[in-house]
């Protein structure tokens, strides 16, 4: 019995040391991965990287990590126009089946899913914010975007009729969707301005717009989008996503 107790104590101690070593190793690896990702994507700040699953060391021995979470704040994505960027406030992604090279210089995830948040102030960059003639004597522009509830965007228009500003902004509820690399905002219905029903093509030139969001980290792509309190919440996804290398 005494020998058995000694054996159990040794096993517990060794198990504890293994857990400590495993947690130290994963903490070091997370820091190295974050630094590598910052360098690869030319990020302004170091991202958050969490390597999930236990034990970590056996995953390393197998050459594949089960689940890696990545969080990037204030990421500047491409708009498709040279020199123009759109700021993604929060980008979060779950990477599954992350394989890495023997020297750890490259890593690729089999699949990735996540979310990206774009504030309404950033989305406004694609809207018509300068007065535009939509009918004889009538000009309009977009002055604000906000949450319209039930997944809709509230588009606020400021109009002038014969040089006189309409006292209250005209509000239009719009649907938002993803098409390829674009976030599209489309009015559900058309407003009247100055008591007039305007030509649909003219008013939609103001109410409807799209914003390209391209070159996301690792090659992940837009999937779905919905309006939320502080901006649009975009679901992203990808396969064979490169984390480094």
Q: Tags for this entry?
A:
6-stranded antiparallel β-sheet, 50% strand, alpha+beta, DUF2993, 245 residues, elongated, 15 strands, 4 helices, DUF2993 domain-containing protein
Output the number of helix runs: 4
How far is it from the N-terminal to the C-terminal residue, by CA?
55 Å
Mean pLDDT: 84
Residue fraction in strands:
over 45%
Question: What's the main sheet like?
Answer: 7 strands, antiparallel
Order of helices and strands: HEHEEEHEEEEEEEEHEEE
Shape: elongated
- Low-confidence blocks of residues: none
Q: What is the C-alpha radius of gyration, as a whole number of Å?
A: 25 Å
Can you lay out the helices and strands and say which pair or pack?
Blueprint: H1 2-41, E1 48-52, H2 56-62, E2 64-78, E3 85-100, E4 107-119, H3 120-123, E5 132-135, E6 138-149, E7 152-161, E8 164-165, E9 170-179, E10 182-187, E11 192-193, E12 196-197, H4 200-207, E13 209-212, E14 221-227, E15 231-244
Antiparallel strand pairs: 1-2, 2-3, 3-4, 4-15, 5-6, 6-7, 7-8, 7-9, 9-10, 10-13, 11-12, 14-15
Model description:
It is built from 4 helices and 15 strands. It is an alpha+beta fold and 245 residues long. The longest helix has 40 residues, at 2-41.
In short:
This protein has helices at residues 2-41, 56-62, 120-123, 200-207; strands at 48-52, 64-78, 85-100, 107-119, 132-135, 138-149, 152-161, 164-165, 170-179, 182-187, 192-193, 196-197, 209-212, 221-227, 231-244. The chain is α+β, with helices and mostly antiparallel strands.
